[in-house]
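Researcher: Going back to the complex we discussed earlier. I've cleaned up the inputs and rechecked each line, so this should be the final set. Can you rerun the prediction on the complete assembly and write out the structure?
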Amino acid sequence: MAAKRRPTIIDVARQAGVSKSTAARVLSGGANVSPKVIEAVKLAVGELGYQRNNLAVSMRSGRSGLIGIVVPDISNPFWAEVVRGAQDASMKIKSSLLIFSSDWSLERERSHLQALVQTRVDGFLINAIGDDAEALDFANLGCPAVLLGTTADLYPGRSSVGSDIAHGVHAALDYLGQRGHGLPKLITGPQRRLARAKFVTAVNRYFIDRDIDPTEIEIEDGDYTVEGGKRAMGRFLAKARKGEHLTIFAANDLMALGAILQAREAGLDCPKDVSVMGFDGIVAGEFCVPPLTTVAKPARPIGEEAITVLDAVMSDTPDVLKRRLPCQLIERGSVKDLSKPIKLAKTG
Amino acid sequence: MAAKRRPTIIDVARQAGVSKSTAARVLSGGANVSPKVIEAVKLAVGELGYQRNNLAVSMRSGRSGLIGIVVPDISNPFWAEVVRGAQDASMKIKSSLLIFSSDWSLERERSHLQALVQTRVDGFLINAIGDDAEALDFANLGCPAVLLGTTADLYPGRSSVGSDIAHGVHAALDYLGQRGHGLPKLITGPQRRLARAKFVTAVNRYFIDRDIDPTEIEIEDGDYTVEGGKRAMGRFLAKARKGEHLTIFAANDLMALGAILQAREAGLDCPKDVSVMGFDGIVAGEFCVPPLTTVAKPARPIGEEAITVLDAVMSDTPDVLKRRLPCQLIERGSVKDLSKPIKLAKTG
DNA sequence: CCTCCTATTGGGAACGTTACCACAATGATT
DNA sequence: AATCATTGTGGTAACGTTCCCAATAGGAGG
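Model: Rerun complete. Updated structure for the full complex:
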């Protein structure tokens, strides 16, 4: 088939009987155009079905209206939510979102970054994979960037938006304390990672600030999966005293879910025999039994705020903005109330 | 700060002491270039940190390397998974993905579509919102498109990729039959929507093909949310006979989850008193109690396949491809096995 | 020595848009 | 009546790339 060429502004101008300068003026809503010309051009646009070629505009203006976002995995509900927030916010600044999943691979991350630069995005959001030495060097990219999440602290010169983990941990531990729980046992992420260090540090700090020695806190490592949570819980159960009420604080919801499942398999009931506090706020926690009490990270607001900050960075604001959005405790049903001093047979 | 301009191929050429034509030849790996020139140009590229400007390439070549995808909501786990599949597949054809959420709004859909056309995407994937009269007219867009999901049938001239709902319904009903269940009660989506019609039709067809009259099947409408599922289940429970084992087949997992929760609130146990079959395969169903038996739509393969088909369409293949990917039954724990105590007598 | 062929290189146009400048026509001001 | 500002319009360059064509050099063959 003939696959007829898309009409350009020149076609519009010819159809309207004016020069392309004049047509461009009409299209950009510029002043100083006679009413009859405006009408003629708009008519021509309608007849031809003219659609502005943003590629040409981008090249000419040096602004592509494209924003990149690189997350570990877009199919992960948390990151999907972040992307959603970013998308909503970028629509407001008339930009489109280009997404990439790095799959926690440094190599992919690098390749995505190159693609972004070559596409001439106006800026990008990224959850950087590299944790320390591997940390990627953004500086020479010469492109506005805002970091997402915890690893942002490794790049002091870059703006970032993440959740306030210390605040979330604080809220969770406050809640556990109110409900009469002592030192919780932690199920964390893999060792030697910044995310884990931040979580553990926040817990320790909380107790130190209250003159409580946190060194006795038991920790088992997971890998942020349900299976990892089950295994960690299995280890806790193996060394637990008979009849002891276990209080678990998991570093993410999937591991918390695993802990609950593992307890059930061991014949223990949550929240009667075991209390579990999660960290994330994924939807799955809403429907499990018992529904998971957790600390929700503000995923969507993180995405929105990141775009706002990026917009500021793109408008060559020189200062570095580091935003930490507060987490929110979501009380559901996986933590028992032990605060009643009298031992009683509660309605389970 | 000076914000120095990004180097162009002209800068590279100057640095290497050759013309831009020659530099371009080297960069495109073209033949007929002397070895020393190749080396000089590559050196210059390294020194200057030259990155090809894809905007210019796109304009010149008429191919942007951009693919759009419009889904109802990227934060919905199902669609996130589809997007992930599309992303992986588009990487293989060296394209980047531009995402948009339509939020089931026709107006937004239209605006996104315009943005896509103006960005000069090479093609796009879309889960069209319009169900009938509202159906969007893609034809005049003059841009390769592949439709995602059930509404694709409304556009006979367009290629599409979706799940084989009839196949999934078939698998689910086969399973229920094997486990000794009779006619299930249906919790469907809102009336007067194509998706609902497809679901109900598939159920009816299944029974008619087996000489079973499906007209007695009870249906309650939901809205694809947990709350909607709970309300629908509440209505079923209100009219259920005492001691009757209820067999529920929900048109999506969230409503199935709602049904389970509602049953529990009514003091009924799933799967002892109530059996629930879902449809979707979302992760939340994996961790609820009981874990949800469901039919998983092949979300990621749909995304991948859609890009493959789009690639074919973009290479001006004239034929229309309509792909239906098979669903997969995921047996977990929400359907009771009634086949042992009761001998099923075939009616008809 | 002249011609032809090949290998290598440079020049220029084109993709579609916008911004700037120049120009003409009109009306207002001196 | 001459000058000036205002309004409307058209021409052209530039963004960065690739592709086509022309041009040059050197060597081979007559």
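Model: Worth noting: Chain B touches chain A through 54 residues (CB under 8 Å).
Researcher: Good, that matches what I expected from the previous run.
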